Amino acid sequence: MLDGALRARGITTLVVTGTMTDICVLATVVGGFNREYRMVVVEDGVATLWPEIQDAALDIMGRAYARVTSARTSPTSSRAGRLPMW
User: What span, in angstroms and rounded, lies between the C-alpha atoms of 69 and 86?
Assistant: First the structure.
């Protein structure tokens, strides 16, 4: 249902924040990527219990599934402008 609603509105990029970076955020990013959305993870908008797990999860997402960026430079930031095409 969500996928259909996003596609009906022409949305192609999803910006993700949340908790449990290594579980919930990662699952959301992989799911969106597998549905051919451009995924952006706001690194200072996600958190998990252990710093080393946080770093590893962000590294995995950045290498394979998403653009990892700060809130200051995310596509939703007033300073960011438009998200570049990849």
Answer: 14
